[in-house]
Amino acid sequence: MLSQKAKYALKAMLALANQENGELLQAGDIAEQQNVPRKFLELILLELRKQGLVHSHRGKHGGYTLAKPADTITFGQIVRIMDGPLAPIPCASLTRYRRCVDCADEKACAIRRAMRQVRDSAAEILDGLTLEQARRGAAHAESLTT
Amino acid sequence: MLSQKAKYALKAMLALANQENGELLQAGDIAEQQNVPRKFLELILLELRKQGLVHSHRGKHGGYTLAKPADTITFGQIVRIMDGPLAPIPCASLTRYRRCVDCADEKACAIRRAMRQVRDSAAEILDGLTLEQARRGAAHAESLTT
DNA sequence: TTGTGTCTCTATCGACCCAGTCGATTATGA
DNA sequence: TCATAATCGACTGGGTCGATAGAGACACAA
């Protein structure tokens, strides 16, 4: 399951990606336009800043902006920061592998193999989708989707 | 994330699928051979029975057995029973769709589109994998995987 | 009929995490 | 210097997860 936190993070990042040539956007504005609890969003933005995905400016006319071009930031990065590994089970994770304590023979474990496949396909999708692509996609959405 | 419950359920079902022509297997034996807390496992088996995936027999020489052939039971069915929908987010679920309260335009939502893809690929993998296939796969595993 | 060994079912527990809030602090531009 | 916005830490209420306990129902054997 994707947590609310991750969903809000994606929303916020998309909002920032939609700004014309990197203009600042304030937490309050994002919260309002995206329907996200303001204080909670601040927490999220703080974390995104610590991970180097956004820059912040304080004081009057402060706000947030993407730290990198929108076509270099992927959904996968954001989700991993908020929710941890994509793999449904730690023993199937590449980024944060952890052995199953109750698993006798990992090589032969059918569950692990299946979850590895799930992880791989999720990673392919989410690591292959940038904010920029998502932003453009959204613009075309009305005509494409029935 | 796949819960422990779902993982144990898969283990138990695989253990049952490994029985020669539908012989009974007791909860205690499954618990021991699969390294699963016994009482917790009973709960799981109970739920699997209620959902019609296993049959049970009481009394001396009681136990559990698959309710259907192993090639008609998929990982997807089991995971959904234990953990609910495969989709990372309710608005991307086919089986249990629920609208996002904080989403203005669902059609244009990039997050939903991405999660729908993740769901679809997970469903393709898990609904396409039967206990029988997993069982056979496990047997070949040693030679195939390095 | 009695005993034994299963499954069945409800209740309960502690720990942990998620979502969200509060309030004080610090930095910044006007 | 003052209003405004980000920063940070503490905290909380609720819910879920993993697991356990124990009484009861049932099947079979002796």
Structure description:
Two copies of one chain form a homodimer. Chain A has 146 residues and is mostly helical. The first copy, chain A, folds into two domains: 4-66, Arc Repressor Mutant, subunit A (Orthogonal Bundle); 74-141, no CATH class. Chain A has six helices and two strands. Chain A has helices spanning 4-17, 27-34, 38-50, 75-83, 110-127, 131-144; strands at 54-57, 63-66. In chain A, strands 1-2 form a two-stranded antiparallel sheet. In chain A, a hairpin with a 5-residue loop joins strand 1 (54-57) and strand 2. In chain A, helix 1 crosses helix 3 (38-50) and helix 1 (4-17) packs antiparallel against helix 4 (75-83). Chains A, B: Pfam families: Rrf2. Chains A, B: One of its GO terms (molecular function) is DNA-binding transcription factor activity.
Overall structural domain count of chain A: 2
Number of helical regions of chain A: 6
Shape, per Cα inertia axes of chain A: elongated
Name the biggest interface.
A-B, 38 and 38 residues
| SSE series of chain A | HHHEEHHH
Oligomeric state of the chains present here: homodimer
Q: Pairing-aware structural class of the strands and helices of chain A?
A: mainly alpha
Radius of gyration computed on alpha carbons of chain A? 18 Å
| Whole-number mean pLDDT of chain A | 91
Beta strands of chain A, count: 2
Range of helix content of chain A: 40-55%
Low-confidence stretches of chain A: 140-146
Strand content of chain A: 5-15%
The strand line-up of the biggest sheet of chain A is 1-2
Largest sheet of chain A: 2 strands, antiparallel
